[in-house]
Amino acid sequence: MLLLRLAARDLLALNARHRLVPHLAARWVHFGRGDASEGERSAWARSLVSLAEDLVAADRGNVEMIVECSPTVDASEGAARTHGQIDVVLVGRHPAEGTLSVQLVELKQWSSVTRVEAATANLVYVEGIEEPVAHPALQLGEYHALFTGPTGPLSGLSFECGGFAYLHNATEESVRPLLGVQAPTGPYAHTYTSDTRGRLLKDLRRHFTDEDDYSAAEYILHRMNLRNTPLLDAMVRSNGEDTVFTLRGRQKKVADEVLKASEMILDPPDRQALVPRPQRAVFLVTGGAGTGKSAIGLQLRADLEAAGRTVKYASGSRAFNAAIKENVGYTAKEFRERFAYFSSFVTPPDPPLDVLICDEAHRLREMSKNWRLPAEKQGTKPQVDELLDASRLTVFFLDGAQTVRPYEVGTPELIEDAARRHDAVFRHYRLVEQYRCGGSDAYIRWVRALLGVSSEKAYGWVPDGLMHIEVVDTPDEMERIVRTEFDAGATARMVAGYCWPWSKPDKGKNLENDVRIGGWHRPWNALSESFCANGEPPSRIWPVHDAGIGQIGCVYTAQGLEWDWCGVIMGDDMVWRTDRWVFQRGKQRRDPAAAVNRVAKAGSLDPKVRTSTLGDEDFARCVRHAYHVLLTRASRATVLYSTDEETRRHLRKLVGETDVHGLRPTQDSIPPELRITRQGDGALSRRARRARNKAKRKSEMMLF
To answer: How many helices (H) and strands (E) does the chain have?
Structure first.
């Protein structure tokens, strides 16, 4: 649990805009804590602001404040209830050592206390609280042990960690029982009051530097798994040999349930059964973008394969499969043995697979039809039935908000009905913990409300220090921001709604600049199976090849993948008019001089979506979901531009000011030790990567 992470000066700027307390209250509800009490709201409005003002007064406004933080890396919602949450964690760097410096803070609005017993200061009475309460230092001692213990986010780091209680409404005399010789001692047992504010400011200067080179709080966010390694980067690092995913919370529970079911339902892999077990099972895992569905699926594939099971990983995303095939180091044969498409099971394997893992199941089609294939390879029954026939145990991962084409029919109801027809055990799990977009569930909820994907009314974005969004006025500005971070080493791409014609490369393998906004012209990612004239990669590897930064991607090449930064262009297929979204179908015309298509009427030019046979409601749904996918591809920051002026005004009003110092998560603001080097192997051929991996394995073997 973590409500907010901002530098002290940014927290004060947020409070000045009257957005601090409402945001914290909304986060409080999200984490299942119920409506925030008046006491909580008062503490946030007064105590948090007082501490931030003192940091600024000490010339330490750069120090970051992590508010209401659960001292555990376990992301489950119950963790906060089990351990409680500390009011504030102050994070910066030590002025002398330059290492991480942390202060755990308990904020108390107490104005006076009385001692329970003459011989101890461990328990005191506080006005307005019926039962005696413990000295704040005792609570801080528990937090210190949890933060620095074996499972804590600060475990194993070299750093200074202390703590203090701040009673800004009290005087030394009014809380004398907390300050006597019997009071607890330790690096976390300091107590400050309004009388000793000067000493607090001096100590803050002693603990923290005023330099602002990078974000020290990133260490804690990284240790709390709020700064995830992008899925594909993790697989590339594994060379396809093992996985590096750490499943936690409900993710681990789902994986454990599937592994347990595989042992109960499937025959032992080490011996042939005289009579095969007849039972089948279907597991459905639903969750929004970034909840870890693919991480679970890929980890399950590795674990089940290691256990001797026959298992395949199927996906409805060509871009995702192609990125894995091109970058992870599999040979063509190895890839075919492990990965497939939903349409690969028209003829079921004999015998059936033990396990079939179906990622992005929202992209299921009614039937496996492809006009390029002969009749005997066309499906004759529902595609979901083909998948169930192909295996004994089938696992589906689905996000209903990512259906972007009218013929995508994957829903929980469809899968449950198919399981019932096959007389299979059915289990449904729901993932809610957010690991993409910096772990900012607030950002995901804001995007869904903005686009009308959820029933919640759109509202103003409140910076939370986990995810960043800004609205720009020109595509040039968007590209400048994205390219700056890309050049600094971040992963980054530009994507857009399908509102421009999409040309194939000409005979010389040159790309047409189809995406034209005023004088700004850029090509779509290449509709090609090979590299183009100026080194542009084919579409299958556009999301992961460095040369892809110069082209614009769409929902079909971005779905299932992520980058640190993402520039998103909203076209005229979805525009804001007064008080509602308006969805527009476009038309294209032939430009005889250039021998290419151009926009004749602004709007969607997606041939599968703009067709008049698709009803208005389904058309709107597809467009909303496409932008939902595009707006949730970034793990750190989204830069948003709309081609429509009224829409830009609406977006800017909702996003608000983004010029608060320190909020933009640039590559330079990440501690050098935590910067993930962008994978630059895209230019290598598969043969070259295989040779590299073989040499690496040989080198490693020589060490033993």
So the answer is: 21, 26
Q: How many CA atoms lie within 13 A of 563 on its CB side?
A: 33
Query: CA 409, CA 396: separation in Å to the nearest integer?
Result: 13
Cα gap 186→141, rounded to integer Å = 8
The model's pTM is: 0.80
SS3 (DSSP) at 438: helix
Q: What CA–CA distance (Å, rounded) separates 405 from 387?
A: 20
Closest CA to 1 of 106, 105, 77: 77
Distance between CA 514 and CA 2 in Å, rounded? 43
Q: Where are the beta strands (DSSP E) in 458-614?
A: 468-471, 492-496, 515-517, 520-522, 552-553, 563-570, 574-577, 580-583, 587-591, 596-601
**Run of H or E residues at 341:** strand 339-341
> Is a pLDDT exceeding 70 seen at residue 73?
no
Residue 696 has pLDDT above 50, yes or no: no
For strands 86-93 and 353-359, give the pairing: unpaired
Listed residue (25, 37, 159) closest to 90, CA to CA:
159
Find the length of the chain: 704
Helices 20-30, 441-451: inter-axial angle, 10-degree rounding:
100
Asked if pLDDT for residue 369 goes beyond 80, the answer is no
- The pLDDT confidence band at residue 559, using thresholds 50, 70 and 90, is confident
pLDDT at 81 over 50: no
Q: Where are the beta strands (DSSP E) in 375-512?
A: 391-398, 425-431, 468-471, 492-496
* C-beta atoms surrounding 220 within 10 Å: 26
Report phi then psi at 668, rounded to 5. Answer: -70, -20
Task: Please tell me which residue, 193 or 680, carries the higher pLDDT value.
Answer: 193
CA–CA separation, 528 and 539 (whole Å): 6
Tell me the pLDDT band of 356, cut-offs 50, 70 and 90. very high
| The pLDDT of residue 695 | 45
Task: Find where tokens 């290419």 sit.
Answer: 596
Cα 694 to the center of its chain, rounded Å: 33
CA 347/CA 377 separation, integer angstroms: 8
Over residues 451-467, the mean pLDDT reads 90
Distance of alpha carbon 283 from alpha carbon 279, whole angstroms: 13
In whole angstroms, give the CA distance from residue 160 to residue 90: 12
Q: Hey, is 71 helix, strand or coil?
A: coil
Mean pLDDT of 473-480: 97
Strand partners, 293: none
